[in-house]
Amino acid sequence: MATVRVLRTWGRSAGRLICVRYFQACSSGHLLKPKCVCLLGYPSFKYSHPHHLLKTVAALHGQVVQFKLSDIGEGIKEVTVKEWYVKEGDTVSQFDSICEVQSDKASVTISSRYDGVIKKLYYNLDDVAYVGKPLVDIETEALKDSEEDVVETPAVSHDEHTHQEIKGQKTLATPAVRRLAMENNIKLSEVVGSGKDGRILKEDILNYLENQTGAILPPSPKAEVISPPPKPKDRTVPMSISKPPVFIGKDKTEPVTGFQKAMVKTMSAALKIPHFGYCDELDLTELLKLREELKPIALARGIKLTFMPFFIKAASLGLLQFPILNSSVDENCQTITYKASHNIGIAMDTKQGLIVPNVKNVQICSVFEIATELNRLQDLGSSGQLSTIDLTGGTFTLSNIGSIGGTYAKAVILPPEVAIGALGSIQVLPRFNQKGEVYKAQIMNVSWSADHRIIDGATMARFSNLWKSYLENPAFMLLDLK
Questions:
Q1: pLDDT in tens, 3-47
Q2: For the chain, which domains are there?
Q3: What is the pLDDT of residues 66-78, one digit of tens each?
Q4: How many CA atoms lie within 13 A of 65 on its CB side?
Q5: How crowded is residue 311: how many other Cβ atoms within 10 Å of its Cβ?
Q6: What is the pTM of this model?
Q7: Annotated catalytic sites, by residue?
Q8: Residue 436 backbone zone (phi > 0: left; psi -120 to 50: alpha; other: beta)
Q9: Most distant CA pair in the chain: distance in Å?
């Protein structure tokens, strides 16, 4: 131990010179595998592993390591630096938080894998960092390296090396796995990794815990279980101690992007609109019969015929009689613009979120032409290929929420439009005909929302009644078709 202290004290002041002399000896060819190294006036110090000594002496001044941004997963290639937890000159240890980065899917805290001093930060706040590129430079602690390498240890067999971390060889594990090991007081060097290149996975930590303790328990103080005193003449029955479940899930934070961001903006603007609601029910029995007759004809033309083309065409006929429902107002509600085209939007539920493409110029389209355009929009919406033209320019909207479920809904207006309708599911319910006889009726509920600043309740009710009459008596639509 005395010799080790001498090396350590001398190394702090003249470690660089030792490295130079040793390299000079090696490069000159006079000393290939030295058994003894003279430390400039100090007694000779015999060391059987010169390569280890070289590593020790070089580490006395610290080694600057580039800490690179590792693969976060889910195909993420770049992230935005949102917050730095360290600055240049700060001392960090393993598992200390270095920074927080945000991708288009999640917010992640990056932890240090080294003990040392931060020498350089490669990014400012809100800069884009790339996977595999350096985040910071860390000067590793030299003193710790010299203490571990100078003291000789007995040789370790190859099999034993597989169960411990070899000095200078990096243990592959994600920050989450390292945190799990730290919380359970597990040395990563004692865990055998089953991942690629010996990477330690979460399952390896859990399996290690199970093999060691027979159960996976979080670090917490053990509660003492006291059995009640046995009753006279009763046999004491051992109490079974149930093992508490371990939940290792974590909260996830994601930025609002894409269609969700657009919906945030639109719905925030909709909050400024005073909504007027109006609900009614329709008997679609006759429309159901007509659709069943026309479905084979439409299918022969390669088109799937649903109820929606009839709903859209009936709405367009109603808008011709009540054009204020097909208008828009300016931000301060000082002017009203009556739209010439009936661009009726259809709310669609897709993998990307809620989208509202619209069928252009419904007032000049037939029911079959509307069905053809709906089929096109639905195919593009399912594959996320709708164009900007398809998603903009709407003047009136229908939401077929009933295709998912529900009978009534409070629809929210999409500014700058002034009205929207939500269609419920079709139900078979008993109703009375004009003769007072009970029959099975195909009943659908509709919920209208209108901008009450320019549309009164009577206007909304009259429009709904006209739309309802077209759908309950489809033949009436023929009288107004142009």
A1: 333 333 333 333 333 333 333 333 333 333 343 343 333 333 333
A2: 2-61 (no CATH), 62-141 (2.40.50.100), 169-218 (4.10.320.10), 258-480 (3.30.559.10)
A3: 888 887 765 678 8
A4: 19
A5: 25
A6: 0.51
A7: 452, 456
A8: left
A9: 122
